[in-house]
Amino acid sequence: MSVNHYENFPVASILMPKRLRRAVEIIYHFARQADDFADEGDLLNEERFTALDSFRNELNRIATNETPLTPLFRDLADIIAQHQLPLQLFHDLLDAFSQDVLKKRYSNFDEVLDYCRRSANPVGRLLLHLYEEATPSNLIYSDAICTSLQLINFWQDISKDYAIDRIYLPQDEMAHFCVTEAHISESRVDKEWQQLMQFQAKRARDLMRSGTPLGSILTGRIGLEMRLIIAGGNRILDKLETAQFDMFRQRPILRPFDWVIMLGKSAPFNF
Question: Which of 147, 168, 236, 258 is 20 to 30 A distant from 108 in Cα terms?
Answer without folding.
Answer: 236
